[in-house]
Every structure is written in C-alpha cells, then in structure tokens.
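Troubleshooting log. The previous run stalled partway through. Resubmitting the same two chains, unchanged.
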Amino acid sequence: MSHIFRPADPNSPVGCACGQHQNQADCTHFSRLNPNLSHNSQSEQAAAQLIETAFVRALFPHEPTRRAFLKAVGVGAVASIFPLGALQEAVAADRLRPEKKELTIGFIPIICATPLIMAEPFGLYAEQGLNVSLVKRAGWALVRDQMMNRELDATHFLAPMPLAISLGLGSAKQDMKVACIQNINGQALVMSLKHKNNRNPKNWRGMTFAIPFEHSMHNYLLRYFLAEHGLNPDKDVKLRLTSPPDMIANLKAGNIDGFFGPEPFNQRAVWDKAGYIHTLSEQIWNGHPCCSFGTSQSFIKDNPQSFLAMYRAILKANVLANDPKTKRELSQVLSPANYLNQPELVIRQSLTGRFADGVGNIQDVPNRTGFDAIPWKSLAVWMLTQMKRWGYLKGDVNYQKLAHDVFMLTDAKTQMQAMGYSFDGEKSITVMGKAFDPDHPDEYVSSFAIKAN
Amino acid sequence: MIKLNQLSTQTKAYLITALLVLGVLGVWHLSTLPTSITAPTDPIALEYEVLMGNIPEHTPAGAIITSTETEFPSPKRFAATAIEHLSDPFYDKGLNDKGIGIQLGYSIMRVLLGFVLAMMVAIPLGYLLGISRVMNKAVSPFVQLLKPISPLAWMPIALYTIKDSNLSSIFVIFICSIWPMLTNTAFGVANVRREWLNVAKTLEVSPLTTARKIVLPAAAPTIITGMRISMGIAWLVIVAAEMLVGGTGIGYFVWNQWNNLSIVNVIFAVLLIGVVGWILDWVFALLQNKVSYTE
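Second attempt completed without errors. Output:
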C-alpha cells in the first residue's frame, strides 16, 4: 500500500512502492527500520485518537454515562452515526499543510547531525509532507551566515550557537531558536601519539589544542576539563579554531598536541594513526548536549506549519536513532559521500561505542554517542554560565529568560507527547563530579577558581 | 641505432618528458609498496587490528595478507580512482554527491559568468582610461587601492551584502578578473601609435570608427593578454571560493574529499584542475595568435 502522505513522485524514473526511495531494496530496508512508514505515523494516530476522545467527551459530558455507553457499544457506534472519520482526516490534512514545502536544511558532516540526516532516507520528512534538500556546509561560520541571510530554512547548529547569535556574540544579532537537541555525548579529547605516556593533564602546560568553534560544547568542555586539572585555558595552553579534518592533519604534522572534536573525527584520528582517545566527553559530563536543530524566529513566525512538520520529523528521528537496533545500522546509512563521507567502520565504532582507543585497547562504552531531543532549560543555563565564566558574556545575565527564549522546551514536550513518546523528567547535571544548580547560576560561576577575570 | 644528436629538439624534449614521468611513477610506486602482515590469532587482538583499519573485516585469524593501504596512495590505486571517476563523470547521488563532470561544469559556469561580467565592465572602462588621460589620473587611485586585495578577502563582504553564496562566488570571480583586463586594456589603448591616430584625425574618421578600425585592433594583443591573465586568476580563485562556500563545484569536491582525508581523491581533483586550467589558457593562447600582427 502506498502511503497517503507520501505519494509517488511522478518525475522519478525509478523507485519503489512508496515512491520515496531509489529502489525497492532501500524501501524495504528503511521501512523495516521505521515500522510506521507504511501506516499512519504515531503522530497522526495520536491526532486521530485525540479527536475521537474529544468527540465522545462532547457527546457525553457526564462521565458515568460515557463510561457506560462506551462499555456497551464502543466508539464504533459513534462513528457510524457521526462522520468521525471525515473529521479526523480533515484535521490530519490540516496538519500536513505546510506553508512552505520545499525546505533547505544545512548540516555539517559529523555524527551529531544523525537525526537530521537520517530523516531523509528514512522518509520522515516526506511523511510530514515536506520536500527537504539537505545541504552539506563547509563550516560553522558559513552555517551561521547562511541562516542569517535566509539561504537555509533550518539547520544543524552547535547547541550554544543560537544562544550566541541571539545575544549578538561574534556575529550580528538575530533571534535564533533551538527546537531540539540533536545528540548527547559523542565528543572526545584526542591526544597526539607522542603524548602516549604523558596522560596527566597537569603536565600539559604550554600545549596547543584545536577546537571546532568558539561557541561550542567542545570549547566549554575542554576549558572545563583543563581548568579542573589546574590549567588556565586562556594562559597556560593555546586553543586554536580548526576544522576537524585539519585537526587530524595538524596532529600528524605535530602542529597541535591534541584536539577536542566531534565524531567520527576522533575515531578517524585513531584510524589514521594520528592520535589516541584520551577522554570521551561522556566521562566529563554524561548526557551533555552537543549539537542542536534550530531555525530563526522569523522562519517559525512565517511558516508555523512547516516548522512543526520539520520538528515532528526530527523528534521522531531522534527517538529512532537512540534505539540500539537502529544505531547499529546507522553507520551504513551515514557513510556515503552524500552524507558523512567516511569509512563505515569508523562511524560504527563512534556510534556503538565498541572501539579501538589507539593505544592497544578495545573499549566498550555503549553510551559513547546518544540521542536525546529534549532541550532542557538547565542545559542552556549551563552554557550561559560557561560563556560568563570565560568572558564571552559580560555584565549581568538574565540566565532564565535567555534559556526560556532560545530553548523551545515547551514545544518539544508538546510535540513529543502528541507523538506518543514518553520522556524522563529533567536530569540533574553533574560535570566532573560537581553538581550544577540551574537556579543559582551566578553562584556556580563564582565557585570556580579558574575563570576569566 | 640512431645517434642522440641526430634527433630534433622536439623529440629530445618528448624523450626527457617521458623519462621524467617514468621516474616520478617509479619513485612513487617504490615508496608506496604494500607490506605483508600476519593477522593475529588472539580474537581480541584481531578485532583491534580490524578496528584500527590495519586489516580488512572478516580476515581469518593467522592469515597472511598484504597491507590494505599505505597512507599515501599507490600509483595503482590512483589509477583505479581516476578511472572510476572518469568512467562515470555525470552521476548524481543526491545534493552532496555528484560526478566529477558535473562538479567541473558548475565551476566552469561560475568562472565564465564572472569573467564575462568582468569583461563587460573592464574593457569599456579600460578603453576610456586609455583614451582620456584625465580619467586615467582620476580613476587610477581606486584601481591601485582595489587591485591588490586578495580575492578571497571579498568573500565575507560578498556573503554579507549579496546574501547568496552562489552569487557571492561569481562576484569574487568578477572582482578578481577585472583588474588585469582593465589595466592591460588601458595600457594597450594608450600605446596605440600616435601617427595612426593622427592620420585618422586628418581624414576626419568618426571617433566610433577610429575605435573599431584602429584602436581596438591595435590594442587587441594587449587586451587578450589581460584576459588571459584574468582567466588564470579566476580559475585559481574559484577552487578556493568553492571550498569556502561548499555545495557544488570542483572546489567543493576537494573539500568533501579532504573531509574524508582521502588524499587519492584530492590528488585526482588537483590534477584535473590543472588540466582544465591548461585548456583555458591554451584557448586564450590561440586567440592571442589570431589577433597578433606584425608592423
């Protein structure tokens, strides 16, 4: 049966039954991984059920009567009298009427972009009535600029980027939103092989480290890590902005001593014998967010339905990606040149957490890379404390308001619930053994011995 | 046997070129020879070697194999990659993965567009500056100020003002191709022999006819030289611009393969860039021969 929301593309010369894949083999493969593909997705089901419930409630406001009625004849009897099906269809159709159907979404070729990428081959965008062009971009500054000049409708961001852009840090000021987090964990500190026997960070004074972008969890986590070991990241070491492939080349050439980077480049450094994995970001803060999916306030204002459709697709991708069964298969989906363009085995090690560390051991860390979409406010507040700590943000900061304005927690919760997903409550944040209280950010910042003045 | 000094200069040159190519290939081949490795028998050690990329997956324990890849590609692997790309140059596997022919096509299109736009501005303006000494003196400070700016330094400004990355890369080509054409046209026009212009004046030839029949043909070789230099610069710049902006083009291809640290693909693309640059230059050389004259 072809899916009602994803009619076959008449221009497509070859394809499959559902019309969304290059061939039948792909179609079968992705349908198996995404069991809702050939039926209404959970979100549509939830909407239908909502209407049913509301309708029966309206018919029988008195609860005991309603219960008795449903017990005796069931919802089917109502449907036979009232056009419930038509109503459900009307609402479903309305949900699938995005203002703008052709969307351009940018991504950086790293594993953090997984939900955003996989939503294409898994047919999750199409399921929501969207035709998405995924475009690979060369760097974070370009993503930022193209987001600001509207070449991109939505994009893969580093989680702190929308905060920084909304504050006008390092760019012009524009309102950007984090719709959801893309991934948790999945970063690492990679050290050059020549420091194989020099593993104590206390001895790293004078070394040079590479990070991908200033407003990144990489920068904040590396600074935190170094500071906990008594090094002032602004004075005792040198931090350099470098793109991931250049990190590996520089590590090999001996220009840098280590880097804090995204997957699969950490594993790639091991694969290319340039370095070894010193610390996984999971060991610094288990469950930390890294990249996010976001767009501008003006896009949401102009295209609320398109935004929600995109939002649902990516939330669903997030849930699917975190499933261990999918995770194992994802490396094959991500590895082609169109997406990450990396050896499959390298991606597999980063995703599944069974990996060679570069100094002779195989490690097993199943939560090396995870996917958890909810953009908790406390995460934003933590990032803001680090911006404040390292002097990117000066003066008084209204942490809670900024977090509230940029991180769309309420929307994420609503959408997740509507799609029938459950999620845990807010997790407490502990970074390298130190607990963080999001209600007292200023006290947190001043509690650190090493910080910018 | 033919004596070496009986050969013509050209044949000698060909022979030396061939020797150089063979020498380079030989050194390349010898320095990338695979070594043989024995797969470990211990299952954990075996898995470690696989995860490090030293031996392929599913290698039986204790097997003796040749190493999969040296860091730098061998000539054989390079040839295989080149054949793979050239045998299917126009495939389209999605927005971020297109054949080498399509990528080159995008780059050439951008260069030509920017170049033609630059020509439309530079040649008339250069003519004006060549004819009029006043205008030349008035405009020359701007030219002197703008000419030495590195083309890529324009990129952030272009992105910020034009707000479109494709147009920005065309603009960068435009802005870097203008200057050699402009200065060469002005120089060529200014140096047309006085006597010819004086003769035209005496015969009361209209300014337009003078321009068409006397000045432009006389200045043509210099103008073409300017265009040739401009094209060379434009082709240099497009690769860098596309690496910065991404999306399509040979520059994007290089960046995407560098992202994969795939030296073999980068070398292949670099060679191809050289070949296309060579062809473009050769076209202008032909043009130059056509318009040159002897007095």
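Takeaways: The mean pLDDT of chain B is 87. The CA atoms of residues 220 and 291 of chain B lie 6 Å apart.
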